[in-house]
Structures are given as C-alpha cells and as structure tokens.
C-alpha cells in the first residue's frame, strides 16, 4: 500500500536541485528510493505527471502541484495495475479477447463489444492505457 503522507512529506527528496520544480527525471529517481512499488509503473507516472502539470503547463511539477501529482499517481497506479491484470500478453494493449475475459474484474457486466468500443476511443481495435485510464477515471 502506498503511503500518501510519506510521499507528500518527501518533497525535498524529490527536488534534488532545490529549485522548487520537479523534472520527470527527478521524480523517477526519487520514486526508486521513496516508493519503489510505484517506480516501475512508468505509464502511471507519466499520466500523473502530465495531469498534475495542468496549472502551469511548463513541463515541471512545482511545489503547488506536488500534492495533486501524488494523488493522481496513486490513482493512476491502481488503474495501471488493473490494466496489467487484463493485458495478459503484457504488450501494453488490450485486445477484445483479453477484454472479454477480464472485464468482470473491472466491474463491467454489460455488452462486452459495446463496453470495448466505448473505451477504444481511437477505434484502433486495441485499448491503450490512456484510453483505459480516461474511461475508468470517470468512476
């Protein structure tokens, strides 16, 4: 289980160039030490990083955005773990067969094809993590 308070209290460890801004590299490096269980889930880190930078959109997580980043990282990490459970061949894409077998784990009980198509926003025939994340973030 990720300790949100521990992550929030460790801002100084993240800001290795004490300039009040965190680069993606600083975040990657700090997570290895502060929360190794999160460090390996790069798609969740990237999604949280981009979403938390919405205030300034400058490519850095500033101290005022850090709490949002931590909250989003925990949320997206949970969603990424669900994604990995359904993505049986671990190719970072969920095809219809994988979705059909794993959708009950997601709490989806309706029409499999309709649910799949609703998640597959780009119509590529595969559910990508960003699509999966956007869909599950609604709940």
UniProtKB/TrEMBL annotation:
PROSITE patterns: EF_HAND_1, EF_HAND_2. Residues 74-109, 116-139 form the EF-hand domain. It comes from the Eukaryota. The keyword Calcium applies. InterPro entries: EF-hand-dom_pair, EF_Hand_1_Ca_BS, EF_hand_dom. The keyword RNA-binding does not apply. Gene3D superfamilies: EF-hand. GO terms for molecular function: calcium ion binding. Coiled coil: none annotated. Signal peptide: none annotated. SUPFAM superfamilies: EF-hand. Keywords: Calcium. This is EF-hand domain-containing protein. It comes from Chytriomyces confervae. The lineage of its organism: Eukaryota, Fungi, Fungi incertae sedis, Chytridiomycota, Chytridiomycota incertae sedis.
